[in-house]
């Protein structure tokens, strides 16, 4: 089954991972801007990082016929440095017209500090002024519920934000409703050590249904698995879910969310498929 991994940090993965993902029928990935495993010292460092995300990485993915998209921001961990964050945010508009850019992300909170919240609001302001899609990182483990609550409140307090253009990522059992009930899309992260296992993600789907929900590996420089989504597909098959339900979560939903992006260009295969079904409905 074709799948999309809507959250994976390919710059931290080897080319072998692209190859294995291609063999497993990965059609596309999106790569949010994030922490590099260390705090970067200069805005120039981020400028090069954004060039890597918008120029180099799509070419590496294309070698394996995988489409590569990305999101731009300074992540919450480095947002503690407010002056550096402002320099980085000022640089983002220069990259927004690059064809693989889907929007602003992954913005959010890490330790739920005041500086993080300030920089979150400034990203949000840029996103609404430029009408970009927004990808939200929610904090891990014990900070998750409080951080998700704070983020949802900040989003709802800004009347310019359209929830249908926002995806709240890394949801778990206790935060998924906060995202969905407020009209946002949401992402479940399948991670071997923390976050969801494929079985927990399947349980969540059985609890909340299949609307506005997707899954990702969040593969990065830590212990993580770029083939986590194929594992979820297997788990859902094992539980007897129909192919159409599984495809909705691992392919149709991320695609529907991305299609709202300002730079979106429809995939030739999808146009052909839509044409075929239209033709089919006439006969
Ligand atoms: Zn991430």
TrEMBL record:
InterPro entries linked to this entry: Metal_Hydrolase, TatD-like, UCP005295
Highest taxon of the lineage: Bacteria
Classification via Pfam families: TatD_DNase
UniProt-listed Gene3D superfamilies: Metal-dependent hydrolases (3.20.20.140)
Keyword Metal-binding carried by entry: yes
An annotated Gene Ontology molecular function: hydrolase activity, acting on ester bonds
Keywords in alphabetical order: Hydrolase, Metal-binding
Entry-linked PANTHER family: HYDROLASE TATD
Family designation: Belongs to the metallo-dependent hydrolases superfamily.
Listed name of the protein: Metal-dependent hydrolase
């Amino acid at each position: 089954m074709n799948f999309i991994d809507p959250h994976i940090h390919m710059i931290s993965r080897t080319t072998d991972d692209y190859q294995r993902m291609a063999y497993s029928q990965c059609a596309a990935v999106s790569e949010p801007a994030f922490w590099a495993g260390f705090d970067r010292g200069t805005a120039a460092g981020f400028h090069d990082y954004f060039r890597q995300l918008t120029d180099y990485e799509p070419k590496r993915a294309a070698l394996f016929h995988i489409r590569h998209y990305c999101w731009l921001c300074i992540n919450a961990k480095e947002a503690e440095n407010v002056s550096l964050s402002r320099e980085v945010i000022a640089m983002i508009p220069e990259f927004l017209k690059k064809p693989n850019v889907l929007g602003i992300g992954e913005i959010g909170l890490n330790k739920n500090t005041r500086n993080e919240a300030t920089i979150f609001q400034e990203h949000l302001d840029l996103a609404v002024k430029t009408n970009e899609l927004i990808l939200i990182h929610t904090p891990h483990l014990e900070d998750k519920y409080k951080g998700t609550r704070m983020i949802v409140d900040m989003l709802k307090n800004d009347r310019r934000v359209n929830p249908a253009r926002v995806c709240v990522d890394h949801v778990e059992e206790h935060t998924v409703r906060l995202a969905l009930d407020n009209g946002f899309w949401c992402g479940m992260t399948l991670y071997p050590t923390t976050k969801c296992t494929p079985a927990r993600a399947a349980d969540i789907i059985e609890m909340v249904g299949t609307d506005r929900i997707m899954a990702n590996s969040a593969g990065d420089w830590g212990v993580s698995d770029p083939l986590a989504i194929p594992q979820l597909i297997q788990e859902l098959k094992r539980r007897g879910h129909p192919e159409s339900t599984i495809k909705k979560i691992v392919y149709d939903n991320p695609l529907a969310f991305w299609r709202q992006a300002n730079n979106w260009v429809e995939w030739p295969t999808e146009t052909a498929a839509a044409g075929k079904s239209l033709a089919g409905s006439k006969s």
